[in-house]
Amino acid sequence: MRQIGFLVIGIFFGIVMFKSEAASWFRIYEMFKFQSFHMYGIIGSALFLGVIGVQVIKKKNFKSFFGQPINFVPKDKSFSRYMFGGIIFGLGWALAGACPGPIYVLAGAGYWPILVVFAGAMLGTFLYGLLRKKLPH
Description:
Number of helices: 6
Order of helices and strands: HHHHHH
Protein backbone atom coordinates (compact mmCIF):
# COMPACT_ATOMS: atom_id res chain seq x y z
CA MET A 1 0.00 0.00 0.00
CA ARG A 2 2.91 2.36 0.71
CA GLN A 3 4.16 1.98 -2.85
CA ILE A 4 0.94 3.53 -4.14
CA GLY A 5 1.48 6.57 -1.93
CA PHE A 6 5.02 7.03 -3.25
CA LEU A 7 3.78 6.57 -6.82
CA VAL A 8 1.11 9.25 -6.31
CA ILE A 9 3.68 11.63 -4.80
CA GLY A 10 6.02 10.97 -7.76
CA ILE A 11 3.27 11.63 -10.29
CA PHE A 12 2.32 14.83 -8.46
CA PHE A 13 5.99 15.90 -8.45
CA GLY A 14 6.21 15.30 -12.19
CA ILE A 15 3.07 17.30 -12.91
CA VAL A 16 4.28 20.21 -10.76
CA MET A 17 7.71 20.14 -12.43
CA PHE A 18 6.19 20.12 -15.91
CA LYS A 19 3.49 22.73 -15.28
CA SER A 20 5.88 25.09 -13.48
CA GLU A 21 8.24 24.81 -16.47
CA ALA A 22 11.06 23.66 -14.18
CA ALA A 23 11.78 20.97 -16.77
CA SER A 24 11.95 23.51 -19.60
CA TRP A 25 15.33 23.89 -21.25
CA PHE A 26 14.44 27.50 -22.08
CA ARG A 27 13.77 28.33 -18.40
CA ILE A 28 17.04 26.69 -17.35
CA TYR A 29 18.88 28.63 -20.08
CA GLU A 30 17.31 31.89 -18.82
CA MET A 31 18.43 31.06 -15.30
CA PHE A 32 22.06 30.44 -16.25
CA LYS A 33 22.11 33.74 -18.16
CA PHE A 34 20.54 35.58 -15.17
CA GLN A 35 17.66 36.77 -17.38
CA SER A 36 14.77 35.51 -15.26
CA PHE A 37 13.91 34.92 -11.62
CA HIS A 38 11.54 32.02 -12.47
CA MET A 39 13.91 29.10 -11.74
CA TYR A 40 15.53 30.84 -8.76
CA GLY A 41 12.06 31.21 -7.26
CA ILE A 42 11.33 27.50 -7.78
CA ILE A 43 14.70 26.43 -6.35
CA GLY A 44 14.36 28.82 -3.40
CA SER A 45 10.85 27.53 -2.67
CA ALA A 46 12.09 23.93 -2.83
CA LEU A 47 14.96 24.77 -0.48
CA PHE A 48 12.59 26.43 2.00
CA LEU A 49 10.15 23.50 1.90
CA GLY A 50 13.04 21.03 2.18
CA VAL A 51 14.32 22.69 5.35
CA ILE A 52 10.83 22.60 6.85
CA GLY A 53 10.40 18.97 5.77
CA VAL A 54 13.66 17.89 7.38
CA GLN A 55 12.72 19.63 10.62
CA VAL A 56 9.31 17.89 10.63
CA ILE A 57 10.96 14.50 9.98
CA LYS A 58 13.37 15.10 12.88
CA LYS A 59 10.66 16.23 15.32
CA LYS A 60 8.03 13.60 14.42
CA ASN A 61 10.55 10.72 14.12
CA PHE A 62 9.17 9.53 10.78
CA LYS A 63 10.20 6.12 9.51
CA SER A 64 11.59 5.20 6.10
CA PHE A 65 9.77 3.16 3.45
CA PHE A 66 11.13 0.01 5.11
CA GLY A 67 10.12 1.06 8.63
CA GLN A 68 13.64 2.12 9.70
CA PRO A 69 14.14 5.37 11.64
CA ILE A 70 15.40 8.21 9.45
CA ASN A 71 18.79 9.46 10.66
CA PHE A 72 20.55 12.57 9.40
CA VAL A 73 24.30 12.06 9.57
CA PRO A 74 26.40 15.23 9.38
CA LYS A 75 28.71 15.28 6.36
CA ASP A 76 32.38 16.14 6.42
CA LYS A 77 32.90 19.73 5.42
CA SER A 78 35.59 20.53 2.89
CA PHE A 79 35.88 23.17 0.22
CA SER A 80 37.15 20.91 -2.56
CA ARG A 81 34.42 18.26 -2.35
CA TYR A 82 31.66 20.84 -2.74
CA MET A 83 33.51 22.93 -5.31
CA PHE A 84 34.38 20.01 -7.61
CA GLY A 85 31.03 18.30 -7.12
CA GLY A 86 29.16 21.54 -7.79
CA ILE A 87 31.16 22.26 -10.93
CA ILE A 88 30.57 18.77 -12.32
CA PHE A 89 26.87 18.90 -11.44
CA GLY A 90 26.49 22.41 -12.90
CA LEU A 91 28.28 21.52 -16.11
CA GLY A 92 26.14 18.44 -16.56
CA TRP A 93 23.01 20.46 -15.85
CA ALA A 94 24.02 23.19 -18.31
CA LEU A 95 25.00 20.74 -21.06
CA ALA A 96 21.98 18.48 -20.67
CA GLY A 97 19.48 21.22 -19.91
CA ALA A 98 18.11 19.19 -17.02
CA CYS A 99 19.09 18.16 -13.53
CA PRO A 100 18.18 14.67 -12.27
CA GLY A 101 14.52 15.33 -11.32
CA PRO A 102 13.41 16.80 -14.65
CA ILE A 103 15.10 13.97 -16.57
CA TYR A 104 12.27 11.68 -15.46
CA VAL A 105 9.67 14.38 -16.10
CA LEU A 106 10.92 14.97 -19.63
CA ALA A 107 11.01 11.24 -20.37
CA GLY A 108 7.46 10.94 -19.05
CA ALA A 109 6.38 13.86 -21.24
CA GLY A 110 7.68 12.04 -24.33
CA TYR A 111 10.97 13.88 -24.93
CA TRP A 112 12.83 10.70 -25.83
CA PRO A 113 16.28 12.23 -26.50
CA ILE A 114 16.53 12.85 -22.74
CA LEU A 115 17.06 9.09 -22.39
CA VAL A 116 20.61 9.67 -23.64
CA VAL A 117 21.11 12.04 -20.70
CA PHE A 118 19.53 9.48 -18.37
CA ALA A 119 21.93 6.79 -19.62
CA GLY A 120 24.86 9.18 -19.04
CA ALA A 121 23.65 9.94 -15.52
CA MET A 122 23.36 6.25 -14.72
CA LEU A 123 26.82 5.57 -16.17
CA GLY A 124 28.30 8.44 -14.16
CA THR A 125 26.67 7.16 -10.97
CA PHE A 126 27.99 3.67 -11.63
CA LEU A 127 31.52 4.95 -12.31
CA TYR A 128 31.44 7.04 -9.15
CA GLY A 129 30.47 3.94 -7.19
CA LEU A 130 33.44 2.09 -8.64
CA LEU A 131 35.92 4.93 -8.10
CA ARG A 132 34.58 6.42 -4.86
CA LYS A 133 37.30 5.02 -2.62
CA LYS A 134 40.03 6.33 -4.92
CA LEU A 135 38.63 9.86 -5.18
CA PRO A 136 39.54 12.68 -2.78
CA HIS A 137 36.71 13.37 -0.37
